[in-house]
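Q: What would this chain look like folded?
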Amino acid sequence: MIKKIDINQLNRGMFIHDLNCGWMVHPFLRKQFLLDSDEDLATIRGLGVRELFIDTARVDDVPSARPARKEAEAVQAAMVQVANTQNAPRPRTTVAEEKDRAKKIHERTSQVVRGLMQDVRLGKAIEISNVEAVVEDITASVTRNSGALVSLLRLKDADDYTFLHCVSVGTLMITFAHALGLDAETTRQAGIGGLLHDVGKMKIADSILNKPGRLTPEEFELIKRHPVDGHAVLVETGTVGPHPLDITLHHHERVDGSGYPDALPGDRISLLAKMAAIVDVYDAITSDRCYHKGIAPTAALGKMFEWAKFHLDESLVHQFMRAIGIYPVGTLVRLESGRLGVVVEQSEGNPLQPKVKTCFSTRSNTYVVPEIIDLARAARQGTDKIVGHELPEKWGIDTLAFV
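A: My prediction, written as structure tokens:
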């Protein structure tokens, strides 16, 4: 049985099922392994992890530990309650109307960030005006309908992960700021900070950034330097404001003081840095890497909901979840009818009942003629509802083809 234990219950001989933290937090190659050394035990205890999962079928049981299934049910119920308390900003257009513009903006932003990262690697000066221009475009698209751009953010090539991750964080920071009702200038600075937050990684060799094996302690410490290195790069430009500098330096801080580089407690971490920490984790754990398989957006939000007890600002995690929806646009969901559908639009006032475009029948194992279903209406009629989410790769479905 998979059970959750507190960190002080962890001992040698236990089989780790899930370290219950983002991949950038730990240096291990796998998330499932036998804990057979004092060195690894000390490493895990030094990560700031408060709770983790073990497989009691492969080691002695821990009677006081909580079954993972019950934990997941409690998290899901809490997420539903939070999602129903507040609506996201009303979009001005539909996702369908915005998607072509969003695609062009995403492509242009990717080109700008790729060029910026290459300049940093070559020691060239950053052209901040190019970043400011795409931030304006992203903000305009998000204001019209954030779902169109958000649906594109899972488009990542493992070899280009670092710069595409920056594109995603910049886009999600603007989406988050818009949902919180922050003023235009603060939103602009949040977007700039998101696009620039990982420039320090350009000071790290690709052989370490993309290492398929376990990182050595020295390599792990080198990667943890990227906020400081990035901050130094941006300070040198002389044209980056205090908010993007703060986001770059502090997006790995945690509210319990377990983050880096400064181990700041929550009351000393700025609003934008707390937002960046949430967005950075969300995009990282939903993305595929050579050593990490991304999880579905809904599952990622569930993980973050748990981590908010210790590491992330709980109130902001709840607001981020409302901003993008429990089932963000582009999510593949399983319906009670046995059909699979792609979320194509959030339903106003019904975060658990978005509009979906059906594409596949699990009962006949075949594609079906696409049909848009308003699940809010279906719920009133008792005809269909979401019963879970799925990974598109499992079914060979290109979700973007249906958004």
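The CA atoms of residues 27 and 220 lie 6 Å apart.
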